[in-house]
Specification:
Blueprint lengths: L6 E6 L4 E5 L2 E4 L2 H14 L7 H10 E7 L4
Antiparallel strand pairs: 1-2, 1-4, 2-3
Length: 71
């Protein structure tokens, strides 16, 4: 079974860009990227959105793009 390709892009309130894809988390803010990847490793060995990260995204970010096989 292959890895599904997907991409989500958010803009944080501070203007930084946060992305989540099959490759994992990235951000134009290094502190955010470090935190997001640390939270991911606490919950899963594959890229995922932990409940507390989902809450952070809902409160602090605006979704800009969403691409994936079922979207």
């Amino acid at each position: 079974m292959g890895t599904e390709n997907f991409l989500f892009v958010w803009r944080h309130k501070d203007g930084s860009i946060v992305t989540f894809s099959s490759q994992g988390w990235s951000s134009t803010d290094l502190e955010q990227e470090t935190w997001l990847n640390a939270m991911n490793h606490l919950t899963s060995s594959v890229p995922s959105i932990a409940p507390y990260v989902r809450l952070w995204l809902e409160q602090e970010c605006q979704l800009l793009e969403a691409h994936g096989p079922d979207l």
